[in-house]
Design goal:
single chain, alpha/beta, 4-stranded parallel beta sheet, 10 helices, globular
Length: about 260
């Protein structure tokens, strides 16, 4: 049962009776409507919405998401990649797992909005090897979304195409760090790259411009575009807008996962 002080946005349907991770259920609850509206807008507008929202990355560093997107080298002529960090190997963390297990299409929709905004045609979800069920759920969700033209070629009747692939890691803790993750995704030893020169926004996956965002961050992107940047900014506190997912475990009276305003 949700905590009385919670403000559930991403976890709105988590543990809700009758809510299932399949596409039919997601569509009944308004799924992919935000993506439909997003692809009818200029990509630059979406980036500005995310910048205006003040959304910070939910992977740990808290770097502003919109600014990270705007740093991507768009003049190199190289493809731009998006990597979803679903490694979640920090001890005691499990918030992203509940999104993947119970509402995977929310993540897929957020990914596709972010990809469209940044002209990404190939996205990867890097999920830790200890989440085999989560990987299967994501593969199923992507296949369902592709069948309905939310993922793949010329999505929703537009000229925009984008594919998503799931890549399972091998349980290395260091893959939670973005450049170590990139090395692993390339089939190498997951050893962090030296910055500079290897800033992912310029030299990331396959030496191409790359955006690395956490699962929770990309789910928040969907709600930023749904509400609008200015409205989203009013949630939470200045310089720390929106909601945050919190996992509580150990010797406590009420363990579990919660979503509070920042």
């Amino acid at each position: 049962m949700p905590h009385p002080l919670e403000h559930r946005v991403i976890f709105r349907h988590v543990d809700e009776a009758g809510y299932t991770p399949d596409l039919a259920c997601y569509l009944r609850h308004g799924g992919y409507e935000v993506l439909k509206r997003a692809v009818a807008r200029p990509p630059a507008e979406l980036i500005e919405e995310v910048k205006e929202s003040g959304l910070r990355g939910r992977g740990g560093a808290g770097f502003p998401c919109g600014i990270k997107w705007s740093l991507v080298d768009r003049k190199s002529g190289k493809p731009i990649y998006l990597i979803v960090n679903a490694d979640e190997s920090e001890p005691g963390t499990f918030k992203d797992r509940y999104i993947i297990h119970q509402d995977p299409h929310q993540l897929i929709e957020g990914i596709m909005i972010a990809c469209y905004a940044n002209n990404v045609q190939q996205a990867y979800i890097y999920i830790r090897g200890e989440f085999p069920h989560g990987a299967r759920l994501l593969e199923t969700a992507i296949a369902e979304a592709r069948e309905k033209n939310f993922v793949g070629r010329h999505i929703l009747g537009t000229g925009y195409s984008c594919e998503i692939h799931v890549h399972r890691g091998a349980g290395a803790y260091i893959c939670g760090e973005e450049t170590g993750l990139i090395e692993s995704l390339e089939g190498k030893r997951p050893y962090p790259r030296i910055k500079p020169p290897y800033f992912p926004a310029v030299l990331g996956l396959y030496q191409c411009p790359t955006i690395v965002n956490n699962v929770e961050t990309l789910c928040q992107v969907k709600h930023v575009i749904d509400l609008g940047g200015a409205a989203y900014e009013r949630i939470g506190t200045p310089n720390n807008t929106g909601t945050r997912l919190i996992g509580v475990s150990g010797q406590v009276q009420r363990p579990g996962y919660f979503e509070f305003e920042s």
